[in-house]
């Protein structure tokens, strides 16, 4: 079946079926627009040629392969949804990006039913219901545009390959490898002009860079998995969280030892060694596909994994940092108190949740009026002024002492009524 003119589907009837006996492909050489409140089902291969223009503001269901060499888009004022719901494995390809407002992956034909060899962009929401998207073997890429996110991601459905995020808000990269969902989380301090690409590998990073070349503080580097984080746009350093899972992470990384701790390590191509970026370990309470999170503000980009490192001994300080607050109005531990900080007004305090999302930041923190009281001043996950949930957070403190920059970090427990 060929379309060389324009098709505008405007009916409000629940379905418009595209199918034609004797044809294996729908070839679009013209304009194909699906309007709001219209459902279209395509039961054989769809080919959008270099002169094709596919606009979806309705509800389109794709049951076979998808190939785009032209324009695939939507009208921003509508809520177009494209559903990949095949009963056999589906190829998603094309020379041009397919720009979907909302996209649903739901194919139970196999564990890995989607073969992505093109760029697929998400404008609003990607719903990972069933089926892993294999982008790694086919050179594909999933891009989340500004304000875009995803739902239902897990071992049953994720991107095996590269994903990109083009906005500075806190973001979970929905990546994994083999049959394992192993996301990375990040928070950017910048307000605009940032973009990052992430991929997870269930492989030994030692085959890329020798684990014997490392900082003195590093004892054992994870030899089973690693992540690659690339900064495409921007200049700042992110707060990164890596996930630990008993299905992929070596068991030694779950053993407790009073003389060691876990840290994010990164291959530094200039120093030609693995460097210790530090880290705070916390439990994951929201996802059963991984059990712990390791969070740190990293010093660069490239290949990351985790390592067992020597426990650091804090530099002696005349500050006393109290690591628990219960802001219930009884004037006891109502604020995050750093005793002595008034002597060092040139300071910055930042507080992050377990996913590396910044929930509080202040300059010139003190003991009277600029203090953390258990409320968010973040930009995204929690609205400014919103009471934060009870749980473990971590803080970073930077201050200037006699011309020397000193940094401290640790846990902070918030018990909010």
UniProtKB/TrEMBL annotation:
Taxonomically, the superkingdom here is Bacteria
Identify the Pfam families for this entry: CHU_C (PF13585)
Q: What is the name listed in the Swiss-Prot or TrEMBL entry for this protein?
A: Gliding motility-associated C-terminal domain-containing protein
């Amino acid at each position: 079946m060929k379309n060389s003119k324009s098709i505008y589907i405007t009916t409000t009837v629940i379905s418009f079926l595209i199918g034609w006996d004797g044809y294996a492909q729908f070839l679009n050489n013209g304009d194909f627009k699906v309007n709001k409140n219209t459902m279209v089902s395509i039961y054989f291969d769809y080919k959008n040629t270099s002169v094709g223009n596919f606009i979806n503001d309705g509800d389109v269901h794709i049951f076979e392969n998808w190939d785009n060499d032209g324009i695939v888009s939507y009208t921003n004022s509508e809520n177009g949804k494209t559903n990949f719901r095949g009963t056999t494995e589906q190829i998603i390809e094309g020379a041009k990006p397919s720009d979907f407002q909302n996209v649903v992956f739901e194919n139970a034909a196999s564990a890995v039913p989607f073969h992505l060899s093109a760029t697929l962009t998400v404008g609003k929401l990607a719903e990972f219901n069933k089926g892993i998207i294999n982008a790694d073997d086919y050179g594909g890429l999933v891009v989340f545009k500004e304000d875009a996110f995803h739902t239902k991601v897990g071992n049953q459905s994720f991107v095996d390959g590269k994903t990109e995020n083009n906005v500075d808000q806190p973001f979970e990269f929905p990546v994994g490898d083999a049959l394992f969902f192993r996301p990375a989380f990040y928070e950017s301090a910048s307000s605009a002009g940032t973009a990052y690409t992430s991929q997870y590998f269930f492989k030994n990073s030692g085959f890329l860079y020798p684990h014997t070349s490392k900082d003195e503080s590093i004892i054992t580097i994870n030899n089973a998995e690693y992540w690659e984080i690339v900064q495409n746009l921007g200049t700042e350093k992110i707060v990164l969280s890596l996930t630990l899972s008993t299905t992929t992470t070596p068991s030694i990384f779950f053993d407790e030892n009073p003389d060691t701790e876990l840290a994010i390590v990164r291959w530094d191509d200039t120093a030609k060694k693995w460097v210790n970026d530090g880290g705070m370990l916390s439990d994951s309470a929201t996802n059963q596909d991984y059990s712990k999170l390791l969070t740190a503000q990293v010093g660069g980009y490239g290949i990351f994994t985790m390592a067992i490192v020597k426990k650091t001994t804090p530099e002696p300080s005349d500050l006393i940092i109290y690591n628990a607050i219960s802001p219930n109005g009884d004037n006891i531990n109502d604020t995050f108190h750093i005793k002595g900080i008034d002597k060092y007004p040139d300071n910055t305090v930042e507080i992050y949740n377990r996913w590396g999302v910044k929930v509080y930041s202040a300059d010139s923190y003190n003991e009277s009026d600029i203090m953390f009281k258990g409320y968010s001043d973040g930009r995204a996950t929690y609205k400014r002024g919103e009471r934060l949930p009870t749980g473990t957070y971590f803080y970073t403190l930077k201050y200037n002492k006699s011309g020397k920059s000193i940094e401290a970090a640790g846990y902070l427990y918030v018990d909010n009524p």
